[in-house]
Design a protein that fits this description.
By secondary structure, the chain is an alpha/beta fold. It is 28% helix and 28% strand. Bound molecules: adenosine-5'-triphosphate and zinc ion.
Length: 486
């Protein structure tokens, strides 16, 4: 009726938490986030409003204590916090499907991803959308995963795939509009702007910006993937777009006032999860338990370094560092290969001067990748280098090598040497990489189907063993094995 006041709906949102269950002295952590979630619920429900709590994907990968138990503490605690829905980030595909399936069973909330489908029949693997009833209001939540996963995490898609997000939404939006008063898209597509331009990937993908531009009838997009700190939501084509940075440093909050199925007013903000926020005692206890259970193995000292081993994101995505060389060399040391190929984006952290623990190594190489050995001809290696020569600085596909040197001139590889000898196009070389690159990840599709085998060793274990063998790293060469001449 015209006398009824609009319904107040609050959406709390997280994205890209990447194993960051545990806060630090600087803040963050699920135990603090829970306190805010409970406060907001109490405040809003007291005034007859409603709260939904959602996660826009990438729960997995980034903190050893979480990674080693397949993010189960993350899913259990998010469930306890009353999460209503989550969509799938690309990092939900870092491990085999069985793990994702297990996570979906442990989570007490639905995985919502309309475009994650069965290769054969095209049917959704989890929920394409859900309709949440809060009071008299029906809220439709459609989930979308990024097509970038086909390049970024291709290994474990298996019998399933991620199809075009826009075409998928064309199918589902009318259905959900019909059933719901408010339409929320829970998206891991990513928000791009001048500060964070779209990557140049060998696959066509939909951004959240493009999605918002292309449809009428979406009220809100809760986004993830780009780790964007959108202090206040961005409006594109009247669609409210929100994203809450990364690692639970912020909890996003959007307030909507809905009247007769229309959003009549709104506001949005990011709530910083500061250190002064009290920790929920149960979550603190429960998460500490998981931390302690994992610590003995992770605290093991594997060696000492007297030089900073440089894994700084911008460095390893533009040129060789001592750490990229060390990682490539560890793979050759373990397998006796002629050449090692390492993607810069797979190197996720530096190692500080001092004792190196197994935790440090897992922080550098968190993906649980295995070491993969292939037989490649000199011609195949040239194809790898020709592709690598096209990778702009800043992209994860930037190539690091061991056992090989080359120069890139005018965008073409020249002077390629294998262990000091000129490359022989017709010779067969033993080449080692991680299973991610070997499966065509980061655009190295020329490696797909090459003869080879998985050693089963994880890249992190191989690096840890190599450091154990070196004992003390006084210094490590950071020579540019691939030299970009212009
Ligand atoms: P998000 O967590 O939102 O995906 P991200 O840091 O992973 O953020 P990017 O900065 O685009 O996203 O990094 C993607 C890069 O990470 C890829 O290009 C690749 O180099 C690397 N990467 C991702 N998954 C793996 C993996 N399983 N093994 C090795 N490298 C990976
Ligand atoms: Zn992420």
């Amino acid at each position: 009726s015209i006398f009824a006041k609009p319904t107040h709906l609050v959406i709390l949102h997280l994205n890209d938490t990447h194993g960051h269950v545990w806060g630090t002295d600087d803040g963050g952590g699920f135990a603090r986030i829970a306190t805010i979630v409970n406060q907001v619920k109490e405040e809003v429900e007291k005034e007859d409003g409603y709260v939904l709590f959602v996660h826009a994907g990438d729960v997995n990968t980034g903190v050893p204590e979480s990674d080693q138990v397949n993010a189960l503490p993350d899913f259990m605690i998010l469930s306890y916090m009353g999460l209503d829905a989550m969509t799938l980030g690309n990092h939900e595909f870092d491990k085999p499907f069985e793990i994702l399936e297990l996570q979906s069973k442990i989570a007490q909330f639905p995985f919502v991803a309309a475009n994650y489908v069965d290769n054969l029949h095209g049917g959704p693997i989890f929920e394409p959308y859900i309709i949440k009833k809060v009071g008299d209001l029906k809220v439709g939540i459609i989930g979308l995963a990024t097509e970038q996963t086909l390049v970024l995490e291709p290994i474990y898609l298996g019998d399933n795939t991620i199809v075009n997000a826009k075409e998928t939404l064309e199918n589902y939006l009318p259905i959900v509009q019909e059933k719901a008063d408010v339409v929320v898209v829970l998206s891991h597509l990513g928000y791009y702007d001048d500060k964070n331009p779209e990557p140049n990937l060998p696959v066509k993908f939909t951004s959240t910006n493009e999605l918002a531009k292309s449809f009428r009838g979406i009220d809100v997009i809760i986004d993830g993937h780009t780790h964007s700190v959108l202090d206040s939501p961005v409006l594109i084509n009247d669609v409210i777009i929100a994203q809450a940075g990364e690692h639970g440093k912020f909890l996003g909050r959007i307030d909507l006032w809905v009247d007769s199925g229309r959003v009549v007013d709104w506001r949005g903000e990011l709530i910083p999860i500061t250190a002064d926020i009290p920790e929920d005692p149960f979550i603190k206890m429960f998460s500490d338990m998981f931390y302690q259970l994992g610590s003995a193995a992770l605290d093991q000292v594997v060696g000492v370094t007297n030089v900073l081993l440089d894994g700084e994101r911008a460095h390893v995505r533009s040129h060789a560092t001592n750490l990229s060389n060390l990682i490539a060399d560890s793979m050759i040391w373990k397998t006796g290969a002629d050449v090692a190929l390492v993607n810069g984006g797979g190197i996720r952290s530096s190692i500080d001067v001092g004792e190196i623990t197994y935790r440090d190594v897992l922080t550098v190489l968190p993906f649980g990748n295995t070491v993969y050995v292939m037989e490649l001809t000199g011609k195949d290696l040239m194809a790898v280098l020709e592709y690598a020569a096209t990778i702009p600085d800043g992209q994860g596909a930037k190539l690091h090598v061991g056992g090989m040197t080359a120069e890139i001139k005018d965008g073409k590889p020249i002077n390629v040497k294998i262990n000091g000898e000129p490359l022989d196009l017709n010779k067969t070389y033993k080449v080692v990489s991680n299973n991610y690159v070997a499966a065509g990840g980061d655009g190295y599709t020329m490696l797909v189907g090459k003869p080879g085998y998985d050693t089963g060793f994880t890249d992190a274990d191989v690096l840890a063993e190599y450091i154990m063998y070196l004992e003390v790293i006084e210094d490590y060469p950071s020579e540019q094995r691939i030299k970009y001449l212009n």
